[in-house]
Amino acid sequence: MHAIWRTVVEGVTGSMAYLADKHWNVVACNAEFEALFPDGRPPANIMRWMLLDDQARGGTLLNWAEDWARGACPALRQAVTDNPADPQLVQLASDVRRDPVAGPIYLATASSHALHPDGAVRQVHHPVKGVGWVIASAANPLPDVDARFVMMQYRPGPVRPHQPPPLSRRTR
Question: What pLDDT shows up at residue 172?
């Protein structure tokens, strides 16, 4: 990945943003993303944090089992299917399968398709802003299509915002 992506991610303001490699290792993030974590330090691996960290599952990521885990598990499974010889991905999937909380969800979503997180609306408990929702936007930086650029807009309050509609073709 070109270093310019660090500049892009760190330059995002008003939304949480991070860049992760194909293993979900956080390569770069902005200050808003750092603020999502009570100690101000994002995890080394965002997928491991989402699926295996007790603070994520029981405090930060609300409705964890239905919204967060059921979205993340198929994505992890697809990554392992696409890269069966990758020891980092295989180990992460193995750790998730063996976990007493995430493992049953990983197994239950075996026939689920990995969905791109674009437009996903998920509830969070932000340590500074309180309970609210994030609306995700995601892209793959070129030429490293296995990398992920994710931006999350925070919306405060208990009422789930509507999922954004797809962009329509721009007319002149």
Answer: 57
Q: Report phi then psi at 139, rounded to 5.
A: -150, 160
Q: Are 134 and 121 spatial neighbours (Cβ–Cβ below 8 Å)?
A: yes
Do the Cβ atoms of 18 and 150 come closer than 8 Å? yes
Averages of pLDDT over runs of 10 residues in the chain (172 residues) are 87 96 96 96 98 97 96 95 96 98 96 82 96 94 84 94 72 58
| Main-chain phi, psi angles of 45, to 5 degrees | -130, 115
| CA distance linking residue 97 with residue 103, whole number of Å | 4
Rounded CA gap, 84 and 129, in Å? Answer: 40
> Distance from CA of residue 57 to its chain's centroid?
13
**Total H helices, total E strands in the chain:** 7, 5
Written as six digits, the tokens of 98 are 């063996």
Query: What's the rounded Cα separation, in Å, for the pair 72 and 53?
Result: 13
Residues 90, 105: Cα–Cα separation, whole Å: 17
Euclidean distance between CA atoms 134 and 52, whole angstroms: 20
Q: What is the pTM of this model?
A: 0.92
